[in-house]
Amino acid sequence: IRLALDAGLPDEGYRLVVAPEGVHLTGGDAAGLFWGAQTLRQLLGPDAFRRAPLPDRRWRLPLVRVEDAPRFRWRGLMLDVARHFMPKDGVLRYLDLMAAHKLNVLHFHLTDDQGWRVEITRHPKLTETGSWRSRTKYGHRASPLWEDKPHGGYYTQDDIREIVAYAAERHITVVPEIDVPGHSQAAIAAYPELGNTDVIDTGALSVWDTWGVSPNVLAPTEAVLRFYEGVFEELLELFPSEFVHIGGDECPKEQWRASATAQARIEELALANEDELQAWIIQHFDTWLTQRGRRLIGWDEILEGGLAKGAAVASWRGYAGGVAAARAGHDVVMCPEQQVYLDHRQAPGEDEPVPIGFVRTLEDVYRFEPVPAELTPDESGHVIGTQANVWTEVMENQGRVDYQVFPRLAAFAEVAWSALPAPADRDYAAFERRMAAHYRRLDALGVGYRPPAGPLPWQQRPGVLGRPIDGPPPNK
């Protein structure tokens, strides 16, 4: 096997030639060589995906020439480890699975109402208190069922360094997310002074044990801004990523409306309302990150107050946020919930475990198009990529995550990498034929995917309430 670099190839692109005299793999850069090696591994067959070689195996390769390069520079997976904690080894495993599918961004959702998952040395209670909850809702938030045992965990800073280094070896960038100003009850439970103390007794709050959106949000004070600046200072030392995600979604405003402190801040800043107060907080961290050579990215709600030029938007509430952001000159990562939220159910059958959201089949994901048709070519250039989101409220362990993510992540990975025809013109039958071989690779990798015929008995969750949404999803 001969390896070479050729600057004339695209970024992350490669050329793979298997000839009688040997294998020649040329990359446009180191990442291109790595992705080309993944293609070579696919050509070797399923056993090449095992952790150790099997004895007495003869390896055969077809004679081929492949020239390949990615369509998008952001090909991501968002992993929510706040709702249900995934131990470090599980995260490393998912980095391996991402690499095998040529995905290159892990969006690491580290904080939420239900848990704080990263060590911050200057604020130790964030993990001492904020990383554990006393019990957990089992199923959708309307379910009467509970897991009556503590749930939690967190990553030490050395764990994070290991995860980031392991990802970098696989040409994957880890983008951390610390959610502000909503989705913050775990932080407030650890440090009650972060909440709206003139409205409720924040000292009585604990880490939230159910799902949905907590009404307990951060107070818009200078002390809170300084606290989170300290959090981000430590994060920047751990994560070298260009982007830092600050959440910015689903921030209830009731406490701010009732808070004399919040209302005084609105008056002081000459803001019109509580929505502009949230925008002021986002703009503060936008400026703070820009001054330190980083770029802010947040969920599409952050568009509502105006952003600095370098800020980017993750469009989750359909396509509209991404369209607006691209037209305003902001970079966009498309992740519309009705298309690529992998917690959504994969079939309409009653045996689907904890059915959530719209039915999104393997074919539906394969026909997902990240770039909205209404964008001009110049505007489309701001769509830097796409990601699939894995929210883990109803995924309590690795088996549940595997079931929801695979095989759909394989379809998503092809969408993110390849310049496919228009959705209606894509050859799904050919994709299914290729998936027949890919299931054997997933078996070798030990992935507990959803079988094409439906869940296996141990994958079902009979009697656990979900929240299915009937009918086709909106295409907007």
Describe this structure in words.
With 476 residues, the protein is an alpha/beta fold. The protein contains 16 helices and 20 strands. It has two domains: 1-69, Chitobiase, domain 2; 71-468, Alpha-Beta Barrel (TIM Barrel), CATH 3.20.20.80. The strands form six sheets. An eight-stranded parallel β-barrel has the order 5-6-13-14-15-16-17-19, surrounded by six helices. A hairpin with a 2-residue loop joins strand 7 (111-112) and strand 8 (115-116). Helix 2 (88-100) packs parallel to helix 4 (157-169). The radius of gyration is 23 Å and the shape is globular.
Name of the CATH first level of the largest domain: Alpha Beta
Which radius of gyration do the C-alpha atoms yield?
Answer: 23 Å
Estimate what percentage of residues fall within beta strands: 15-25%
Separation, N- and C-terminal Cα atoms? 47 Å
pLDDT < 50 runs, ≥5 residues: none
CATH homologous superfamily descriptor of the largest domain: Glycosidases
> Could you report the average pLDDT, rounded to the nearest whole number?
97
Helix content percent band:
25-40%
Oligomer state equals single chain
CATH architecture of the largest domain: Alpha-Beta Barrel
What is the tally of helical segments?
16
